[in-house]
Amino acid sequence: MGSGLFDCSGKVTLVTGGNSGIGLGFARGVAQMGGDLVLWGRNAERNAAAAEQLRALGAPRVSCQQVDVTDEGAIIEGYRQLLDDMGRIDCVFANSGMSAASRSLLDMSTEEYRQIMNLNLDGAFFTLREGARAMVRRAENGEPGGSLVACGSLSMFMGLAGKQSYAGSKAALGAMIRGMAVEFGKYRIRANAIAPGYVVTGMMDNPQSKMVTKMFAERTPIPREGYPEDFEGIGAYLASDASRWHSGDTIVIDGAYLVRPM
Known about the structure:
This protein is α/β, with parallel strands linked by helices and 262 residues long. The chain has helices at 21-32, 44-57, 72-86, 110-140, 164-184, 207-219, 232-239; strands spanning 12-16, 36-40, 62-65, 91-94, 146-151, 189-196, 249-253. It has a single domain, classed as Rossmann fold (3-Layer(aba) Sandwich), CATH 3.40.50.
């Protein structure tokens, strides 16, 4: 497929944590616009199911790799394989992440803090760095362009009790993205973050999660919860040339939750 303003044909997009949730929503948007996709996820069965779905939506090529993004060496090797298989990289969506389990900063262990930072911040940094390196090499060989995208959170702007490590990792990513936008603009590489609101995924099918979902839906100006499908459009936009002059931004997708009146 792929035609029109958000055409992604001929472009290769990497999505970490791309076999479910927001990552798969982003990938679905790219697939519908004819883009090639590489998914990094640790669950082989979910990878295979996501790849089948993306091919059915129109992605010409879908490659899946079991890459642990908490391992810098695995990321570097993952890119080597990606470039061998696909020949290029045009968009990177550093989406893999986890939230904090602790309800209070006072109860948060050093182990939990390090685990969150290792995945949410270090993993995203190394993923984006290696993507930028590949894009810069391509630009120096006469073909500039590329899109670096990080998955942030409304916690970049809001205080959340017990989630300081999670919020800190996401806020740091936003700062890194702005620096990348400035450093790599001369190569026509843009860098942006997205900040999702409350998004329902397959892991939330339990009574407590449904109660939380209802609470957020009632408080959101567009009165419903978010779904992975709500990220298809931004995925296609950021992977395509339509976003070629959009850089250094944090794009909030939350049904206006952040700006609601108290």
